Write the structure tokens for this entry.
Amino acid sequence: MIDFFTSLTENTLFIVFIIAALGYLIGGAKIKGIELGSAGVLLVALVFGHFGCTVPSIVNNLGLSLFVTSVGFIAGPGFFRNFRKNAGSYILLGIVIILTGVVTCVAVIQLFGIPADLSSGLLTGALTSTPGLAAAKESAAAAAAAAGLNVQAAEAAVATGYGIAYPFGVVGVVLFVQLVPKLLNTNMEAERRSFEAASGSENKTFAGKLISMDPIGMMAFAFAIMFGVILGRITVPLPGGASFSLGVSGGPLISGLIFGHFGHCGSISLAVRKDALTVFREFGLCLFLIGAGTGGGAGFVAILKEYGAALFFYGAFITVLPMIIGYIIARYGMKLSLFNNLGSICGGMTSTPALGALIGVTGTDNVASAYAATYPIALVSVVLCSQFINILF
């Protein structure tokens, strides 16, 4: 019997679906109108990860590509119109959010004497940026080598900071996008109608009859992911020896937006059925959260015991303050609508799980347009800033 249960804990299919089932069970519970939703999957995955359960990286990558490509297809028709209208605001907001996180991180270094390598890990974890983590580890290793210190210890400190801040970095943004509309007593139906009317659709009417290669649109969806993976692997060098790429999250998202916007290639239809996209989106988000959670949960309690719970609160502060500052600037300075505001915050925090929660809260996938517009500049900013912290401090 023991061997039977041991084999189950090593079975990827069993682990994936028991986490999904328990996660949605917990996520569906409401407390004063607030629910975790799919983020409940992340919490359960963190617990499973703490006890040693793992899933292959393909689970995380497949889920992420399914989710962002689906969102791209749905939001594509209104993306370019929304981007042209608010491009400057999106770019500025992405930079402001990251810089606020960096200033907060520097304050933690100065006030509490936290080492720069550990603090840069806290920053990238609080902003849930894996590319930022990679850049922080690289710069911390270089700084340690230049100072004659232990390179492996510096890299481990960065990973430790990331592991401490990451869980709240995910859950905090998810809760933020749900709490703000409730605190403002927002009429979500009226806000949704106004937002969708402003987003509109830019698809041009094609005069000829389109040819559908399959009844669901799987051909178009598969091609979008394929092109997205190619786009995500294009690497752009950055100062300091680091590099930037859109990765598995950004590449398929941009590809999905383009496919969704144009809707056809010549006489070939690129449309995907909305009900299929809805399933792909939710299933993909679920797989992504399982992969991220089981990885992030490993050793989390041990790290807190070793470094103290105070680091968790430092990371939480680095997560919360940029969102508050970003929301205030977007609302009162840029006059963005609530949905564009929160979508931009999700992108500025580079938080894909929060985008999934926001879609559920707002009832429209079009909020992804603000996310997609803010995400790239925020990603580049956090990669650069995570290096500067180790170089300067």
Remarks:
- Residues 54 and 189 are 41 Å apart (CA to CA).
- The beta strands are 236-237, 243-244, 264-265, 268-269.
- The mean pLDDT is 84.
